[in-house]
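Before relying on records like the one below, remember that each one covers exactly one chain. Contacts with other chains, cofactors or solvent are not represented anywhere in the record.
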Amino acid sequence: MKRGFYILMILCAALMVVSCDKTKSYTERLKDERKAIDRLIDNEGFKILKDYPVDGVFKENEFVKLDNDVYLNVIDSGNGERAELGKTKVFCRFEAYGILDSDTAYLMVDNLSPKYNNRWGFPTEFIFGYNVSAAENRSYDPDLFVGEGLATGLYHVGNGAIVQLIVPFKRMGSYFQSNYSPVYFGKVRYTFEK
C-alpha cells in the first residue's frame, strides 16, 4: 500500500512540475503572431484584398495575402526584368519592424534610409530561390532577415521594385523562426546584380 502511495505522490509531483512550465506551445505562438499581425493591420489602416489586383496596381494601404501567408503591397513594380530562380543575385535594402511584443511597430533595421548608412550601409545579398545570405564572411544584422518571406515579392515584381511585406515567422530566416518573431517590412527595394 505504501509503495502505491509513493508512486502516486511521485506522479503528482511530476504532473505539477509539467503543469507549471511557462513555455508557450507552438499553437500559442501562432495565436500571438496572428494577434500581432491583426493589430498592425488595424493600427496602420491596411486593407486586405481577397485577390491580387488584375492590373497589378495597389493603392497605398492595400495588401494581398499570398498563398504562403505573406502579405504584399507593391509600391513600384520595377523595370519588368524578372529574377531567375536559383540564378539572380539580389541586393536588397529595407526597413524592418518588429511587431510581436508591442502595440506599435518598432524599428529593428534600416539599411535603406541614408541616415542609417553609417550603421547598416550595405545591402543584404541573396540568390533568389536559395533565400539565404550570399554575403561573404561578414556578421551583418540585416543578413538575418533573409528568408522566403523577404524574397516573396520577387515572384510578382522585377528589378528596382519597391514593396511592403508582412511576414509570419515561419517564412523568415532561422533566427526569427526560433524566436517566433513576425516582421513588417515597411519598405523593401530589390536590385539585381548586373
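The chain has one domain: 26-192.
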